[in-house]
## 1
Amino acid sequence: VAALRKRINQADMSSDERDRYVNAVLQMKKTGYYDWYVRTHIDSMWMTTANPGTMNMWAHHRPAFLPWHRQLMLDFENDLRTADTQLTGKPSDLTLPYWDWINYRSKKKFLWWGRIWGDNFMGPNGSGADGKVTDGKFQAGPGWVLSYDPGPGYMPFTQATVTYLTRQFGQDPNVDSLPTQEQWDAARNLTVYDSAPWDRWVGVQPAPVPNPVKFAHIDSFRNVFEGWVPYYDSATALPVNTNLHNRVHVWVGGAMGPMSSPNDPVFFLHHCNVDRLWAQWWSDDPSRPYLPKDGEPNATDPNNDPDTTIDLQGHHLNDPMPPWDGRNDPLKGPMPVIRPSDVLNHLALGYGYWPDDKVSLSAVGVP
Amino acid sequence: MGHSIVIHDDPDEIAVTIDGEPVPVSGTAGGYWSPLQAYQQFASLDDLARAVAATLRKPAG
């Protein structure tokens, strides 16, 4: 019970906690463990399961999007603790902080804004034509060199041609703001985790779509939360495209845009918040099942995404999720077998969000 | 009577004008996805053709 990890809002971190976090991230970069996450995230779009050649893993656009990233965050937190111990010589209690991009979204809330993008934490916005980050701990220079980008076409592991961090806050003309509370509330109201055809087209209909509005009646919390479903504030409003999870990636811009997005350390604070919001949805009614259940047949989607057949291997409740499928990883060695069913209850994994899980944490003795 | 159709495809996003007026093009079916812009979807040529056709069919004025 005492070992339950408390993940807090980055805005509530002390200066010392921010320093320790950044130093551990920089240490992971030196040891090569940080870039394992960049590479694994890119690889998730091509990675095959135990039956090679039968599928792409698709840790995005598919049901396993949320459980796959939950395990990625948990592994990162564990490696962060190892790095912290390497630096301090003591057992580490570091946890991932989350960036609550709904409630700390405005530059007017300068206090909170300044903390996350301060030189001693995630560093500032980029500048110049390509958004080069030139200040802070992750500025262009020998301490933060990008090793991987998604490369041209679908070729993974192409050496990055831009080797420094880039950011372009709100520069995309269609994504000049972060997600809103209303959009999250509309997503949270959905009751079905996912449904056929299980891809990024679930719930998407030709525009203009006056109905449904506010995501109502869409049977895919996952696809809405991932951000592929247009949001209509009213029957007459123009749709807001690129929502929630996706919208934050695009809003930060630069290195957060392609599949190599973990190159920006804010990726982990963003996905910690994604994980936290999923935990909120799950906590609303833990009896809601993860879908697809075992044995669910593959689906057909006429949208060709890029294949007509949507292969559900790796996405069923009890399918191993690559790379957590027992494979021997060159850096990490034998990987554990992790299935969506293993990670549905975040509290059972040994961590909680503060203050969201305050009641639950108090019940098990965490002050 | 002819029309002027301009397709602007930079950066990675299709912007279309017909006779100087912007035409909304949204990715409704078969839109493409790119690992270089991994968190957005873009309109396909089918979407573009539909938008252009719908605009040209509208009566003038």
Note: DSSP finds one helix and five strands in chain B.
## 2
Amino acid sequence: MRMLPMAYVARNLWARRVTTALTALGMALVVYVYTTVSMMTAGIRSTMVATGQVDNVLVLRKGAGAEINSGIARGQAAVIETLPGIATDAQGHLLLSKEPVVLNSLPKRGSGKPSNVSMRGTSAIGLALRPQVRIVEGRMFRSGSSEVVVGKSIASGFQGAELGRSLRFAGREWLIVGVFDANRSGFDSEIWGDADQMMQAFRRNAYSTVVFRLNEVGDFERIRAALEDDPRLSLQARPEVRFYAEQSEALATFISILGTTLSVIFSIGAVVGAMITMFGSVAARVGEIGTLRALGFRRSAVLIAFMGESLLLSAFGGAVGVAAASGMQFIAISTTNFQTFAELAFRFVFSPGIAVNAMLFALAMGLVGGVIPAWRAARLSIVDSLRAA
Amino acid sequence: MFLLNLLLKNAFRHRLRTALTMFGLVVAIAAFGLLRTIVDAWYAGADASSSTRLIVRNAISLTFPVPQTYAQRIRGIEGVKGLSWSNWFGGVYVTERNFFPQFAVDVATYLPLYPEFIVSDKQRRDFIVDRQGVMVGRSLADKFGWKIGDSIPIRGTIYPGTWTFTLRAIYDGIDARTDEGQFLFHWQLLAETFKQRYPGRAFDVGVYVVSIKDPTEAATVSRRIDESFANSLAETLTETEQAFQLSFVAMVETILVAVQAVSYIIVLIIMIVLANTMAMTARERIAEYATLEALGFGPGFVARLIFGESLLIALLGGIGGLAVTLPLAGAFRQAAGTLFPVFVVSPLTQTLQIAAALVVGLVAAAWPAWRMSRLDIVAGLRHVA
């Protein structure tokens, strides 16, 4: 079967430049929304996944979904320390950190509106457990003092959280002596201070979480069983990676569902636009179609040519939309994660997979918008269409 | 009249194209209205708040409690009329997906502070005397099919264990703005269980709710309360109920701003679609417009024809969109369940929907109208569409 050349299809689009550009722009906007939302979801997920370490285990009170809901009494924490299989550092110290985590509401830079920030009481070992965290400005807090270090996103996103300033809470002034970069993980949105000082200041007698490193990743099941079967404890152990992935799931799913629903509704508008354009394209070329058919091109060749025109149009719109959305990569935003009730800063993350999905979405719009007009073009009878010319 | 007739005839000459464009407009205007309503729904809690209620919380953050002993001291502060307190329970009913807020409240003092919760005297009495009792809002009860006397198990995340409550009262909101999705039970039950489990530890209050005599005194009374606890172990932050509710909305502000921005994108998309339709229409009618001008109608008349047709299509589509918004919002409310306890399409949204349709009609016609009004008659007459 003889096909109509691709150049014929492309030239038809070029001949009606204004209409082509308008229709493609409509589709580009839909694809832009779709891509941006996918990038946002990917950004939240990758931030939280980067937060956990494969060989770290996180212990919370049973049933507590988040660190702030949890409570681990000092006695219980001591029992965890006796478990076999916990790694030690070169000096023989257990790689285990007992941490209180609380929320402090601080005013955001710009709007001045308060938002909850996670504050973690930790120690030098806590820092060693998270190799992705590096002090980039100033120094680490001294243990036993009212000094704190703040994550990069906190230093830039909140009023009065810069290096050298002090924060007032729990009846004390806390001097900010350092800023740390947690390599785009959730810790970038936290403030860290000395665990014992924080327990004291907040008048708390229980830690929120205990984090430790495993000697062998394969030991996890055994340690989990030992911990959860101990009747003195009512605790739950999870690999850190899984815990943080779960922490972001509700927010990521919410944004993903909201975004996909919106994109699908919006695509109705763009599909209608494509349909109008393609119907117009067919109507303006009835005589031409008749001539092509008379020359021996089959109905299927006409159908394919018009489908090709619609798909090319949508591919062009899709490419513009994806290109515009990829520019969002350089923007960082933050919002409150419903599960932790605390601020989470993240970036839009672009990936080839997202681009492919967005282009498929665009082509699907072209397919739906083009199929009826193309079908109509293919069904025209040769005599009638030649007479119409 | 003649002009209107011509406009109608013109608009529906290409029935399929006009129908498709209008369909797109209906979808776009309805989506625009729905998105705005979703954003409004987040602010519903703040809108429904009373100006005579203040919320006292721990200055560090909401997750820190306030000592129980503060109750007596707050009652003594000048300007304070009534006082109650509540704790966020944060439990789960069957699965995490069934989210709704649960509060442990001091029932005897709490109900008088919330006159917008309408409940019969008998149910109110039953609730007050039953320590295991619970009162829920009408829409929450409807969602799960709860009836008076039912046992409702809630798994605690902050307070461990499974707690079983007996449904004693169902309240109705005084108007559509009232949140009918709350779950209120006795604070004393929580406090006593806590003390049994952890003897020797004090059980504190989540937030105090203070009613004041005069709404204009809100700022003064707030300052008096905070000053009296300054430099104590638990400093307080007192704000109006509205500011308190808005602080929750502020947390998800980024998402709300995004939704709002996106609601304008759909208007932009449909504007492009209509502009395309009008450009195609105008191009096909070049010869007709040239004829009209040759007959003595001015360029202004041609521009009016194009604007009129565009506005007519946009307005009809806009009215269609407006008409389907209400049933859509109703369906959405059903589907979303307790996520949005208050979901009402506001008159402002409806006005904006029509305004958006008109702007779409005007902008879409601008370019074709400008081109056609500068048409060269001779070239136009020669033009074959």
Note: The radius of gyration of chain B is 30 Å.
## 3
Amino acid sequence: MNGQVVEEKLVLRNQFDELGRLSEWVSEVTSRLDVTSRTAFQLDLVLTEAVTNIIGHGFMDEEVQEIWLLLRYAPPILTVVLQDKGQAFDPLEQPEVDLADNLADVEIGGLGIHLIRSYTKSCTYQRLNDSNILTLTLQETGY
Amino acid sequence: MELHLETLDNGIKLIKLSGRLDLAGTQQIDNDFAFNTTTTAAAIIIDMSEVEFLASIGMRMLLSGAKGCGNRGGKMVLYNPQPLVADALQTAGLDRFLPIFTDIEDAYVAVQP
């Protein structure tokens, strides 16, 4: 890629069966960008979790709406902006997973946001012009 | 996503998972997985070597299985996950409840009553 900036776009519907198309897109784009398998895996994971959250929480009615993804790779920084016109929903305000010390007491939930925070260099949320805008950045480490 | 169950001579249930444990993959096997992990007190090893991807929904399935298995007095461990899958499990903190082994003999010992 010789350090040049690359931009890629994807539009998804707010339906869970679109997650397959998301992962196929991530696979195709990351192989073209020649990033490591670690970065490709982590990007697939954080976008899967983020889009799952948006589809699950952002829309009250059954109307089909769109989620726009803009990926920008300015090596070594990968930035993805996810935008939708669902109701205001800040996934970063959701409680993180609280794994108890004892398996029997473990409440299962909140893993997605924990994974997003862990695998991103930064994640920010904005509500702008009736849109949710979630910006995630990852760093290609080269290994 | 595929689930293959084998009961070994030593009585241990070896459950081999293959494919992507994302939403679609998890939905394909979660009933089968829950049935095989939570209905009897069993020593269970989950062979993760052919799991290529793991999202939180798949982690919840694994954790539910371990919890159900433990509630019945059994024990469940993970065997040989690919490095990126192992990293995701550790990042999520699941390895505290689902011990990860790379040596099958060690896994046998860990699940014995």
Note: The interface with chain B takes residues 16-17, 19-20, 23, 37-38, 41-42, 44-45, 48-49, 52, 97, 99, 101, 103-104, 106, 108-109, 111-112, 114-115, 118-119 of chain A (CB under 8 Å).
## 4
Amino acid sequence: MQPNEEPALLNRAREYDQAAIAEIYDRYSLRIYNYIYHRLGNAHLAEDLTATVFLRMLEAIRSSRAWQTSFSGWLYRIAHNLVVDYFRAGQQDEVALEEWPIPSREHPADIAERSLAQQRLRSAVGQLTGEQNVVITLKFLEGMSNAEVAGVLGKSEGAVKSLQFRALASLRRMMGGEEL
Amino acid sequence: VNKGLESVLDECLNRIEAGKEEALDACVAEHPALARELEPLLHLAVELETLREDVPPAPAALQAGRRKLLQEAARLKALEEEKARARRFPLWALNLPSLLRRSTAVVALAAVLVVTLLGGGTIAAAATTLPGDTLYPVKRMTEQFRLVLTLDREAKAELVQKLDERRREEAKAVASTGRVVEMSFRGYVSRMSLSGWTISNVPVTVSPETLLEGEMSFGTVVRVDVRSLSDGTLLAVRISAEPQEATPQPTLSPTPRPTNTDVPIQVPPTVVPATAVPTQVRSKPTVAPVEVPPTATPSRMPTRTATPEPTVTPIPPTPPPPREIKVRFRGIIEAISAQSWTVDGQTVRIDANTRVDESAGRALVGAIATVLALRQDDGGLLAREIQIEQPPPTPEQPFEFQGLIESWSATQWVVGGHVLIVNSDTVIEGSPQKGLLAEVKSLRQSDGSLLAKSIVVTLPTEEVQFEGVIEDIAADQWVIDGIVVRIDAQTQILGTPAVGAVAEVQGLLLPDGAVLGRRIEVQAPLDPPTTAPEPTPTEMIPPNAAPAAERRRYASVPPLVGSVASEG
């Protein structure tokens, strides 16, 4: 989205303009979907939560506090919070975090077929703290630059670099310090 | 040190991301002091990027999400417009009974003001207006004045009915114009179907988004909030059961007969219309409500039996209890959090008293649930009961495996014990043959079945050659010296096949121990034929007395002879 175009589009969306909302959805839904998918590893869930992200956006878009700097960052934060809520609800059911990306009904052979190393890594990413998780997901799984990640998180690029370092160090510890 | 490491790490990551060859090793070499820390982190980052290759499946449901979003936007927009209209013409102006409760003087003043400001001509002009017209609020206001000023209860009840009828006629009239307006009217449910209901001869469309509040059946008095659509239909936004007390009872006598027996029966406290300005009744200093038991039993009127004065007013109507609005709706669970769930686009709060029935399936996002909730004062919903009706559909999951072909047909293969559905989209490479190894890529569908996307039949590479007596001949396989030799279109057969004849077999050892015949040369029978010929010294497979499992062990040894191709 062109920087000079975004405010006008968002203003129209604030008035529930159908075309503007449709345009926002078309521009961002796939990115949000991919983000959630990479967090949860489940396409069906990602579809559901993506729909919820945009419904939440609609509920809050009229609020002046909806987003301060970056609209896309705000969307990612909604998505992040939903994912966190989802995990939280899952923990209430005493489902181990490591098990989440694998649907419970998956055929045992499917599980065997998965790359265990990648599975471990994904599981470890899922256990990172909120901002570290977002940085790793956006930077390495979504391929965003530091500046883009900073926009999403509303932080400086320097802060993103620090987060990136701490996140990788945490992951290394979780993976048992093994050389990958 | 960390600051330095952070910067170097970031710089190296940028170089690796830019795709510079050898960037990782070069970076590590350039920073020997940090190498021990740096190298594993860079390897980890590279490994993380491989997860990016895990491309999510095509998000088919994103289009459904888009439709839902736009529907919700339309609903919210309509709501905002309604609020804006209310701000332009405040609701209190239409809610004169509440004003009356506060001050009759204010009402009187308002009446004078309205008549003065608008004039009789304006009011007359407003009489024929429809919802959405500029003067329509004037029409509603004059109606409210009439209602307030009608003191006779029977007349008031008739007026209420007449106004209800007018609202319904207005709704039909607006719909016929194709104008998009939100309205509300009241009536009896006379037809209920999946697509639409009829409320006192007014057909309304019911959609999954329609809010249904309270228990409803045929004959229930309901209030319907509708939106007229440009196609001439009325879409019900909300249908709520009206409290029983609200039904006007024109037969109610304002002066009940003071007999000992029939008063308590014929004049139960609930028959007083709630809409009939309860403040007027409440203000009458009759029997103190505290003396009246809440249940309608004859014993509640001991004073009347003692003093049957005809002027005694009926039991003062206790105001109806605060209406507990129950909302029941059904849909897909879209989100679950510790405080609230979103079902069918509606967010309901949950608390310790919320009962979740998971007997038919686990409460997971994607499951279908029926929610019974109470509408709260703040407009929110508090879930009382959530019943999971259907577990979430299992998404199609890719399932790849290798196995031996057991059987095959145009529509179904069995490979490695898995039944595969095969259709015109299934890509099949190679010719199927029982016992051959197949690499299968399939999708596990929501019903658990496997739909084959591709099947690659792998030919074995281990070649065998042996000679023996033909013991059995069938179309697809022979038995030679106790060994099953499978025949397919590529099998070259020389000589005249006959049971008892000696054949030399060149073939490929199948994983199940059988041999896929590539070349079978049947030798001419000796003259005169002897009894069962002895195995020749060139035989490479143990005699047929050896059990199949044992032969299979032999199958695992390297090729026993040179390749068939090299022998021509």
Note: Chain A touches chain B through 66 residues (CB under 8 Å).
